[in-house]
């Protein structure tokens, strides 16, 4: 029914664990109990990793389960996990993020299917916004170093075919 532009953001489902946890890669957590929000992409990524999901109605409860030692880690989107890791430096059990994403989700603009001129124009504009630095300015305003997320944008607008990731089944 719809098609998507070139992705302007590569969303990631990230695993956070207590700072003193010995695991380094997502494979180190296969078979382990990992918390997430019920019915979420995070839960799906846990199952795809052959880990055991411990699910909750909200992300805060999933995080609390890790803080209380009921789960070895927690999976959520990068913004949420970054915020939890940053906050954990001053309260609760200190957390860290496993560098390897559990799952990638390319984010683009959805539009009516079979309109190649519209798709081409939107892709052209996205590439210009990226090349000019405008996307980075918008990113920095909402998610950048001076926000509670303190995230740096490293992705570039590229055709989906240039990204290396396993599609969500």
Compact overview of the structure:
This protein is α/β, with parallel strands linked by helices and 169 residues long.
Structure, described:
With 169 residues, the chain is α/β, with parallel strands linked by helices. The chain contains five helices and eight strands; from the N terminus they run βββαβαβαβββαα. The strands form two sheets. Strands 2, 3, 4, 5, 6 and 7 form a six-stranded mixed sheet that branches. A two-stranded antiparallel sheet has the order 1-8. Strand 3, helix 1 and strand 4 form a beta-alpha-beta unit. The relative contact order is 0.23. The mean pLDDT is 95.
Distance between the termini: 18 Å
Question: How many domains, as an integer?
Answer: 2
Q: Write down how many β-strands occur, each being a DSSP E stretch of 2 or more residues.
A: 8
User: What is the residue-averaged pLDDT?
Assistant: 95
Structural class: alpha/beta
Examine the secondary-structure arrangement and name the CATH architecture of the largest domain. Answer: 3-Layer(aba) Sandwich
Query: Percentage of helical residues?
Result: 25-40%
Question: Can you lay out the helices and strands and say which pair or pack?
Answer:
Layout: E1 2-4, E2 9-18, E3 33-37, H1 41-48, E4 52-56, H2 59-67, E5 73-77, H3 78-88, E6 95-97, E7 103-107, E8 110-112, H4 116-132, H5 134-143
Parallel strand pairs: 3-4, 3-5
Antiparallel strand pairs: 1-8, 2-5, 2-6, 2-7
What key phrases describe this protein's structure?
169 residues, alpha/beta, D-Maltodextrin-Binding Protein, domain 2, 6-stranded mixed beta sheet, two-stranded antiparallel ribbon, 5 helices, 8 strands, 33% helix, 23% strand, globular
């Amino acid at each position: 029914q719809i098609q998507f532009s070139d992705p302007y953001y590569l969303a990631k489902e990230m695993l956070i664990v207590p700072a003193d946890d010995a695991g380094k890669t997502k494979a180190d957590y296969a078979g382990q109990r990992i918390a997430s929000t019920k019915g979420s992409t995070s839960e799906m990524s846990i199952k795809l990793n052959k880990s055991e999901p411990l699910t909750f109605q909200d992300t805060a409860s999933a995080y609390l389960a890790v803080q209380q030692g009921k789960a070895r880690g927690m999976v959520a989107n990068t913004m949420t996990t970054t915020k939890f890791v940053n906050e954990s430096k001053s309260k609760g059990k200190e957390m860290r993020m496993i560098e390897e994403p559990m799952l990638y989700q390319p984010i683009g603009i959805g539009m009516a299917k079979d309109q190649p001129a519209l798709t081409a124009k939107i892709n052209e504009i996205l590439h210009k916004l990226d090349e000019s630095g405008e996307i980075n300015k918008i990113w920095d305003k909402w998610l950048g170093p001076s926000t509670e997320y303190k995230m740096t944008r490293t992705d570039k607008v590229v055709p989906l075919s240039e990204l290396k990731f396993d599609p969500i089944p």
